Amino acid sequence: MSDLIQQRQEKLQKLKSLGLDPYPQPNLVNRDSTQVASSKIDQTATVAGRLMLLRGHGKILFADLQDFSGKIQVFFEQNTLGEKMEQVKLFDIGDIVTVTGIVFKTTAGEITIRVSDFQILAKNLRPLPEKWHGLTDTEECYRQRYVDLIVNAESRQVFLTRTKILSSMRQFLDDHGFLEVETPILQPVYGGASAKPFITKHNELDQEMYLRISDELYLKRLVVGGFEKVYEVSRDFRNEGVSRFHNPEFTQIEFYYAYIDYQELMKFTEELIVDVVKKVKGNLQVVFQGKTLDFTPPFKKLSFKDAILEKTKIDIDLIKTEADFLKSIQDSKLKLDLNGVVGLGAMFDALYKEYVRPYLEGPLFITDYPSEMIALAKRKPENPSKIASFQLIACGTELLKAYNELNDPKDQHDRWVDEETLAKKGAENAMQLDTDYLRALEYGMPPTSGWGMGIDRFTQFLTDSPTIKDVILFPAMRQEG
Q: CA geometry: angle at 274 spanning 213 and 311, to 5°?
């Protein structure tokens, strides 16, 4: 590699010795994309992009020039370019150039630009890898995403799809009267989820701050203020493990919809998901890791209790304490790692994630969690041991979570006190009590349902990507060396 870099450095110096600037800044605002140029047979086109393939020698050179829209063949020849052909001999794969010439079809039928003029725009000094797809290079794909995007068309398509997913979701919410807002990333009290935060300090205010783990409590403050339909596309941060479905920094959409309940929200969710899947995939069939799912509504529904019962034969309605839970696990002869798991709600969650969720193909709504599991959700009036909630499951993973929002300040206070008790017992993910949010609730929040989805995971699902790192441009990685 060092020899190849040295050879390119020598070509760079040669360009300079010819009086050329190898990194000029021309105005190419009126250039053609390669896609447009391909339609301009017998006309002059000017394109700019990266040389991805060089073939020929001496007095002729063919090359593939790639830009954001695609690629086109370009043809350099001594008869047309004269002395300037000497510069062509200094080309390397990866150089960025602009060319101008007549577009024609070769005898083999390939659309080509016969170059009458060109300019080097940026000299490539580090050779592109020949085989970027090998498993040994996977980590380098994530570390050097800029190279991955240059050489891997499939990777570029994943991120184009991600953009389409986000724009489609925004459009759907905008069309239904939602207002997009922005809420603080740095927060004096973290909340809205059960997660471990990143901690920092604001020097001027001389106080500890947290990177948000969720937008929820600020968005609901806006509902108190009179915004009945709000959403945010946000960067959230959780100081937790990395896995094929988790990254410590991730993108989430959360929205809050006043004056409806979670049953209506399930219908709205179906409409949104169907709309986005259809726009992105062209139909409602999604293939993920060899399994095909049909997103034709209505989606099936299964209560959390029945899901646990079907897979483990444990009736969670008979479990009232942590001791009851441990006895049920023992009696059922199930193996469950509860190391670091504190509280009945966390135990239910651990059982569900180990023995139930991985085996649910979906698309499926899992509904009505035990009230111990989500401290911000409203209890069902006919059964206060349950919360009015649902999750959308596909191929054994959660795509989104939603529930009726708890708007009783006294109940919310008491639920947070319970969380503080769990924290004292060692629960690292326990929620903090937010006195300002309680004050907001005391002004009155209308009955509201809320919803959150991780965009990275949804993109992973719709692009059939095996790991979340494939759909995040710059995923979290251990420092090199």
A: 70
